[in-house]
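$ ./design --mode recover --in tokens.txt
reading tokens...
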């Protein structure tokens, strides 16, 4: 029964970055991270994947799978409102190894999807080429925009908020207006998105397409990655996440339904039978003509740029948080003296995005990364179950907002996410394997020698079922360090011992506890160290039995 770890206080709240985002800003940043490819690119691809126009249902199913993860992240973020989001939650729950894998995997996932957003607007650039009469190089345009958004990110979330608010408002307003316009002026086939031809593959095809559009909701929980910059996190994080999920679900499902009811699905296909990547242009052009279609194309480019802006902001917080835990080089945790942003982490993320745009098949790699992201949702749901179970020992876990109907949503999230991973097949496995390989190499080559082994909630829960003696010893060890004053973490005074025993044996009276202290303090120096504490408590409890 050895203690093979050192005590390390859990950092729950950090004030390194400025807290200046309210709930409206949270919703805006969240929506801006979703509405790009989710509506402007994916509908036609989803229709082709499903084989019919019932794609609205796939968006609803995907939202139902996201909901438990959104609820779990809301709880975790109010317990740990610091930068890093899912990485922090996983590292604090399972330890630095899984933390490194998840942190780097999420960083790669978000930066690839941000790069995909910058490349994804290529389907709408032909409108600009027609307007200006010049060919546009997609990669050069993407790199120029990348430089701009890196600069904006370094200047801080206040700048991002000012830019994204009008973009999100304009995009949502335009899509809603076009949808209402279609309802008032076009002959709608309401049965088309729900008829017998809407879901030719049945529920299996709906679930498979839900896995494809799952990425559309990634922005719902991206906000947890910048929790350190949110005012009143216990209130604004859960509200922002859940409001964003509701708004995005209504937009995705509602607009997708109207798109398919208003326009013949064949119009969303190319002459060769493939999916058009500019479905909103097709829809807007059918409703209002060429000018309205051009407006839709312009908004698509701007909105997907905004999506990349939010993506790089969230992605950069992962290396920033990992550097603070000694799992990545220390300079990545540096904060700009003027703008109070992790400028080196932002710059490094932007550089990686540039390489991705120039070298990697971003579209394909981003799809592979979706599998890893779904797996992270599964682990996050499991983390809430682990932390609730371990909370009687790990007293630092005290969320100000708790998941309702626990553990129903968490179990549903694990089952739903596992189902989507199964339906994705080898794509999910390949994406997860690559992310795991990168994390393992980084941890064993750099992080392991710098990260201190610690008693994690996962270990506590595991030993509770596999080795009860070790579990009890580790619990007492953690209580010792919880009770010890920071000025002398290696020993307990009599008063601190009393506090420790209130946790371990609340039924003991004060006289009994005082006698125990003096029995354990053999040399009579008025303090007891951790070894004396563990052995003395064990002997005392054995005598009671």
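writing sequence...
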């Amino acid at each position: 029964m050895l203690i093979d770890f050192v005590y390390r206080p859990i950092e729950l709240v950090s004030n390194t970055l400025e807290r200046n985002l309210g709930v409206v800003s949270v919703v805006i940043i969240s929506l801006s991270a979703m509405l790009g490819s989710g509506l402007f690119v994916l509908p036609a691809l989803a229709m082709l994947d499903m084989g019919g126009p019932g794609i609205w249902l796939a968006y609803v199913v995907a939202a139902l799978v996201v909901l438990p993860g959104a609820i779990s992240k809301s709880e975790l973020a109010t317990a740990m409102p610091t930068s890093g989001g899912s990485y922090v939650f996983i590292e604090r729950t399972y330890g630095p190894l899984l933390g490194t894998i998840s942190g780097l995997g999420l960083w790669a996932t978000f930066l690839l999807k941000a790069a995909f957003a910058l490349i994804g607007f290529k389907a709408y650039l032909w409108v600009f080429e027609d307007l200006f009469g010049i060919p546009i190089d997609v990669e050069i345009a993407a790199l120029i925009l990348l430089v701009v958004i890196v600069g904006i990110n370094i200047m801080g979330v206040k700048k991002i908020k000012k830019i994204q608010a009008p973009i999100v408002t304009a995009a949502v307003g335009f899509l809603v207006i076009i949808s209402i316009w279609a309802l008032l002026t076009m002959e709608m086939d309401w049965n088309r998105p729900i008829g017998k031809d809407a879901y030719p593959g049945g529920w299996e095809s709906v679930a498979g397409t839900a896995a494809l559009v799952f990425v559309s909701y990634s922005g719902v929980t991206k906000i947890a990655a910048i929790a350190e910059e949110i005012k009143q996190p216990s209130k604004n994080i859960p509200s922002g996440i859940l409001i964003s999920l509701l708004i995005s679900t209504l937009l995705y499902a509602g607009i997708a339904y109207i798109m398919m009811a208003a326009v013949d699905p064949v119009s969303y296909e190319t002459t060769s039978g493939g999916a058009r990547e500019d479905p909103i242009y097709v829809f807007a052009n059918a409703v209002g003509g060429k000018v309205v279609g051009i407006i839709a194309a312009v908004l698509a480019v701007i909105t997907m740029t905004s999506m990349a802006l939010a993506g790089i902001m969230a992605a950069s917080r992962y290396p920033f948080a990992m550097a603070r835990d000694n799992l990545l080089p220390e300079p990545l945790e540096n904060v700009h003296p003027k703008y109070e942003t992790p400028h080196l982490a932002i710059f490094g993320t932007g550089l990686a995005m540039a390489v991705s745009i120039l070298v990697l098949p971003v579209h394909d790699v981003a799809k592979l990364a979706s599998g890893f992201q779904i797996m992270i949702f599964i682990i996050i749901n499991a983390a809430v179950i682990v932390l609730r179970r371990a909370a009687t020992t790990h007293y630092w876990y005290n969320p100000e907002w708790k998941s309702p109907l626990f553990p129903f949503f968490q179990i549903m999230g694990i089952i739903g996410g596992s189902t989507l991973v199964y339906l994705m097949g080898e794509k999910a496995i390949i994406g997860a394997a690559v992310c795991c390989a990168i994390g393992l190499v980084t941890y064993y080559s750099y992080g392991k020698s710098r990260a201190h082994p610690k008693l994690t909630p996962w270990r506590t829960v595991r030993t509770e079922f596999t080795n009860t003696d070790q579990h009890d010893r580790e619990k007492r060890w953690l209580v010792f360090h919880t009770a010890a004053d920071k000025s002398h973490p290696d020993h307990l005074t009599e008063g601190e011992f009393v506090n420790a025993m209130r946790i371990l044996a609340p039924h003991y009276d004060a006289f009994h506890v005082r006698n125990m202290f003096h029995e354990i303090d053999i040399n009579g120096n008025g303090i007891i160290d951790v070894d004396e504490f563990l052995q003395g408590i064990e002997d005392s409890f054995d005598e009671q039995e």
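exit 0
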